[in-house]
Amino acid sequence: MNPSYRERLLPKWWVFVFVASLIAMLSIAYGAAISPPVGWLMFLVLTLGSIAAMVTSSPVIEVSDVLAVDHARLPLAFIGEVAVLDATQTREARSRRISATNFVLVKSWASSQSVLVTLTDPDDPHPAWLVSSRHPHELIEAISARTASAG
């Protein structure tokens, strides 16, 4: 079935700039020590490689027949309550006040908001999932729409 929601948690723009600036400092050092073309080549190769690595390794959230978060899959039948958490609530949910056995995929560089999904499956080792999202309300709407149509 086609996904009703799909989101890739790419880093924010400033993360790419920060990584490129670190690579630039290293490239300038090598360019000064060896030769400027070596520094430029190093900057180009390492920057493009870093960008490719950050993009391809960014987790994907998808709602279709299951809630898929990166490589984890959760059947929609086992989803209980779903709530949006702001930055403060997300920090609290990540702390020791909430169960240490929760499934957590929080990427602070992607979003400060998250979605807390409680599970109804008593056999699941994770009582809840805490997932970063740039569009938490859209994610919840997609989950609600799919669970309503499935059951």
Question: Can you characterise this structure?
Answer:
With 151 residues, the chain is an alpha+beta fold. The protein folds into two domains: 10-56, no CATH class; 62-150, no CATH class. 43% of the residues lie in helices and 25% in strands. It has four helices and eight strands, in the order E-H-H-E-E-E-E-H-E-E-E-H. The strands form two sheets. A four-stranded antiparallel β-sheet has the order 1-2-3-4, covered by helices on one side. Helix 1 (13-33) runs antiparallel to helix 2. It is elongated. The two termini are 16 Å apart.
Concise description?
Helix content is 43%, strand content 25%. With 151 residues, it is α+β, with helices and mostly antiparallel strands. β2 and β3 form a beta hairpin.
Primary descriptors:
alpha+beta, 25% strand, four-stranded antiparallel sheet, 2 domains, four-stranded mixed sheet, 151 residues
Topology readout:
Blueprint: E1 5-8, H1 13-33, H2 36-56, E2 60-63, E3 66-69, E4 72-75, E5 79-85, H3 87-94, E6 103-105, E7 114-119, E8 128-132, H4 136-150
Parallel strand pairs: 6-8
Antiparallel strand pairs: 1-2, 2-3, 3-4, 5-7, 7-8
Helix pairs in contact: 1-2
